[in-house]
Automatic annotation (TrEMBL):
Its main location: cytoplasm. It is an enzyme of class 2 (transferase). Signal peptide: none annotated. GO terms for biological process: CMP-keto-3-deoxy-D-manno-octulosonic acid biosynthetic process; lipopolysaccharide biosynthetic process. Keywords: Cytoplasm, Lipopolysaccharide biosynthesis, Nucleotidyltransferase, Transferase. This is 3-deoxy-manno-octulosonate cytidylyltransferase. Its EC number is 2.7.7.38. The gene is kdsB. GO terms for cellular component: cytosol; membrane. It comes from the Bacteria. HAMAP family: KdsB. GO terms for molecular function: 3-deoxy-manno-octulosonate cytidylyltransferase activity. Belongs to the KdsB family. Pathway: Nucleotide-sugar biosynthesis; CMP-3-deoxy-D-manno-octulosonate biosynthesis; CMP-3-deoxy-D-manno-octulosonate from 3-deoxy-D-manno-octulosonate and CTP: step 1/1.
Length: 265
């Protein structure tokens, strides 16, 4: 049963030494409702709920001072408690995942930075999470950080609207995110990849609190991409290039694929 604060604490070993003034929390959003896969966070993969696999990966991080699951469902809450995790209940009425993250962050008032780790990526690389955390803590000019994988411009995924692409400036900051091919190669440019956006975000706390007060922006609504709201409001978003291509789980079929991967490790 959850306490009055809505959060259940388990010991979390703090191994972050980025700064005495920084406190970095990883938050794993986990909703019950899903059109394609209801109850996904509790789907068993290799004998453990999906959300526990993600939790276990995140526990290997060295740059997180705290780790929390944010959920809107008592069943998920109870399951996290059962495997010894830390969890907070959030409203079921949030319009976006970022709003859920912002509410969960209130449970950790000392947090200066928040890393939003998708609760359906059981093979996420802990090193990528650490890299995002370190990038945010090292650069006071950043509002956000995220990641992307290079794609060959001829890869069929470039034309897939379900695959979000990002274009970056020479200094590694995001210029635009789109479901369309990005950039459009009118001329071939040797060595220029297409960058597939990976849905992990790190935020400066003060920026996250501002972000959720802004209404959905025009480009955000057109592309159905929350990160465009940040760009349209002048945010600075660092994009880390990574070779982490770990698959997410959006369907039962993808869960079976991940189970096969885990069985082969």
């Amino acid at each position: 049963m959850r306490g009055a604060s809505g959060i259940f604490s388990q010991p979390f070993v703090c191994v972050s030494h980025l700064s005495q003034t920084n406190h970095i929390v990883g938050i794993l959003p986990a909703r019950w409702a899903s059109t394609r896969f209801p109850g996904k966070p509790l789907h068993l993969i290799a004998g453990k709920p999906l959300i526990q696999h993600v939790w276990d990966r995140c526990r290997k991080c060295s740059k997180l001072d705290d780790l929390i699951v944010a959920t809107d469902d008592q069943r998920i809450y109870d399951a996290v408690i059962a495997f010894g995790g830390k969890v907070t209940m959030t409203s079921a009425d949030h319009p976006t995942g970022t709003d859920r993250i912002a509410e969960a962050a209130r449970a950790v008032p000392q947090a200066t930075h928040i890393v939003n780790i998708q609760g359906d990526e059981p093979l996420i690389e802990p090193a990528l999470i650490d890299e995002l955390a370190a990038a945010m803590a090292a650069d006071d000019s950043l509002d956000m950080a995220t990641a992307a994988n290079p794609l060959d411009p001829a890869d069929p995924a470039v034309a897939d609207p379900n695959v979000v692409k990002v274009a970056i400036a020479l200094d590694g900051r995001a210029l635009y995110f789109s479901r369309s091919p990005l950039p459009f190669f009118r001329n071939p440019v040797e060595g220029l990849p297409v960058l597939r956006h990976k849905g992990i975000y790190a935020y400066r706390r003060s920026f996250l609190e501002r972000f959720v007060t802004w209404p959905p922006s025009p480009l955000e609504q057109a592309e159905s991409l929350e990160q465009l709201r940040a760009l349209e409001n002048g945010a600075s978003i660092r994009v880390l290039i990574t070779d982490d291509t770990s698959p997410g789980v959006d369907t039962p079929e993808q869960a079976a694929h991940v189970e096969a991967i885990l069985s082969s490790l």
